[in-house]
Amino acid sequence: MNIRCRKINCKFNHAGTCHAREVWVCRGAICETYQKDEEKTDLELASELAPTMPNNVPLRCTAATCLYNRDCRCGANGISVIDDEIKNQADCATFIER
Ligand code: SF4
């Protein structure tokens, strides 16, 4: 699964793409794999502007009310994850309620 992600302070985020070994999106369409990287600096945040590389991350998703979800598998071509700074979480923006 190609995952573009705006949660730049996640340890798995490189230039706006996810490079985790596996991503788990929970029932509330929140990325549970997110881990804040306390070491990331503003300089690394600037890497967000670098060209993105295609990735292929295994995705497990239990958001059963999503249009794309079939038996805990995501049927979208790729997903976008956005930064919810207020709740300090990473939300799946591709989620569409059935
Ligand atoms: S927040 Fe989730 S989707 Fe984004 S880089 Fe981290 S693990 Fe990947």
Describe what you observe in this structure.
This protein is mostly beta strands and 98 residues long. It has one domain. The chain has one helix at 42-45; strands at 2-5, 13-14, 17-18, 23-25, 59-61, 69-70, 73-74, 78-84, 89-92. A 3-stranded mixed β-sheet has the order 1-8-9, with no helix packed on it. Strands 2-3 form a two-stranded antiparallel ribbon. It is globular, with a radius of gyration of 13 Å. The structure holds iron/sulfur cluster (SF4). Residues 3, 5, 7, 10, 12-13, 18, 20, 23, 31, 33-34, 81, 90 line the site of iron/sulfur cluster (SF4).
Indicate the topology:
Blueprint: E1 2-5, E2 13-14, E3 17-18, E4 23-25, H1 42-45, E5 59-61, E6 69-70, E7 73-74, E8 78-84, E9 89-92
Bound molecules: iron/sulfur cluster.
Structural class label: mainly beta
| Record field, number of beta strands | 9
Radius of gyration: 13 Å
- Largest sheet strand order: 1-8-9
Q: Estimate percent helicity.
A: under 10%
Proportion in β-strands:
25-35%
Which descriptors would you attach to this protein?
single chain, 98 residues, mainly beta, three-stranded mixed sheet, two-stranded antiparallel ribbon, 9 strands, globular, binds iron/sulfur cluster
